Each structure stands twice: as structure tokens, then as C-alpha cells.
Amino acid sequence: MIYIVIPTYKEKENITRLVKVINSTIDATVLIVDDNSQDGTLEALNSLGFSNLVVVERKTERGLGSAIRSGIKTALDKGAEYVITMDADFSHDPLYLPYFLDKGKEGYDLVIGSRYIKGGKIENWPLKRRIISKGANFLVKFFLKSPLHDNTSNYRLYSKRALEEVIKCDNANGFEFQICAIYSIIKAKLKIGEIPIVFRDRENGNSKLTTKEMYTWFKYLLKLYSSS
């Protein structure tokens, strides 16, 4: 069974269209984890009436990492063999979903949708965001010795073996979850790989990345480094 886990917070303008495009691209269960959006996101989802749509509503919890972890736990409980995580804002094009699955079936436990390998690129990002992303990836490669070119992309596939490792990242509740997941999978000596994607900046809504979250991410990276 394949689950697509998508965290949402105020994504009414994007999410229903995204679910429809996913359904026309791949046969999978779409699992939305919503952090108590107040913009009508849940109402829009419930109006779809799709049998392959699961919505987890969180009233008090917050954070990208904890939302993904919650979605992964739910998917595992329902018998998931693969989980693909992606953003709700169309920066991750659903057309790549079959390519992730093909790579997973080749025996890869973690497949990253990479912006930084041949064939991958970023469109419509301001220079500041490009610098932050490049800098973050440099730090992960330097401190954690990751062989991956894109360690911060949330567009990724996990095998069941990988899922059982990443749910142990129970203290990574924000953007740091992505590096904890990679670190855990590398330590477990599972097979990792990348496929190229074109990342397009969101057209609707606002980015969830804040200065405070970047600082928390960096402290967490140092914590992983000191424990390695």
C-alpha cells in the first residue's frame, strides 16, 4: 500500500486541486495531516468525498516534523509499504510520484526528490532562499557526512524499513525532522538515492519557514553531530 502524507496549515487555495491531480497520477491513499487550519482547509477536503482520502486533524500540535511523524505513524498502522511525503503548495509536482515509486521498487529505502543533481533545479525562488537552502545542505553534508546532494527536500519516499527508523525522531518537530530522518536511515545502513525534480516556489499562500525555525534547525544539527 502506498500513502502520500501531506502536512497542511492554511492551504485551502491549493489542497483540493492537489489531491485531484495526485489521484489522476498515481493509485495511492492521500493522508492529510492538518494543524487546525482556520481558513477552510478541512471543509474543502471533506467536500471532496474521495474514498482514498484520510484526514488527520490536529487541534493542539504544531510543526512540520511532528505532522509528518503523525502521518507516518497513521500510515504504518494502516499497513503502508511506502510513504511519500510532499508539500501542499504545488512546489512538489505530482508528476514525479511514479518515478519515486519505481525507485522504491528497485530496492531503495529512501528516495529524495533532489533539486541539486543533474536534471533538478529551482524556479522562482529569491536569492535569499537559495542561499539558505544551499547553506543548509552544505552544513548537513559537512557535519553529518551525508552523501546526498539535497538533504532538506521534503519530497521523498520511504520504504517500510525506513519508516520504522524515522518514527524514532520523536524530538524533531519542525524542519529538523528532515535531517533526523536522513541521519537515522544512514545509521541504519539502508539504501538511499535521489531523483531530479524541478522545484517551483508556491503561487498561493505563504512560506512556513521562520528565522526561529532556522535557528532551531541549526541547533538540532549540532546536536546530531555531537551524538555521532
Give structural notes:
By secondary structure, the chain is of the alpha/beta class. Helix content is 41%, strand content 18%. The chain has helices spanning 12-23, 41-46, 64-77, 97-105, 127-144, 160-166, 177-187, 211-227, and strands at 2-8, 29-34, 53-57, 82-85, 110-114, 121-123, 156-159, 192-196, 198-200. Strand 1 (2-8), helix 1 and strand 2 form a beta-alpha-beta unit. The longest helix has 18 residues, at 127-144. The chain is globular, with a radius of gyration of 16 Å. It starts with a strand and ends with a helix.
- Series of secondary-structure elements, N-terminal to C-terminal: EHEHEHEHEEHEHHEEH
CATH superfamily label: Spore Coat Polysaccharide Biosynthesis Protein SpsA, Chain A
pLDDT below 50 for ≥5 consecutive residues: which ranges?
none
Percent strand equals 15-25%
What does the main sheet amount to? 7 strands, mixed
Q: How far apart are the termini?
A: 34 Å
CATH architecture classification: Alpha-Beta Complex
Rounded mean pLDDT score:
92
Helical residues, percent: 40-55%
Lateral strand order in the biggest sheet: 3-2-1-4-7-5-8
Q: CATH topology, anyone?
A: Spore Coat Polysaccharide Biosynthesis Protein SpsA, Chain A
**What is the CATH first-level class name?**
Alpha Beta
Family: Belongs to the glycosyltransferase 2 family.
Domain Glycosyltransferase 2-like: 4-166
InterPro entries: DPM1-like (IPR039528), Glyco_trans_2-like (IPR001173), Nucleotide-diphossugar_trans (IPR029044)
Organism: Candidatus Acidianus copahuensis
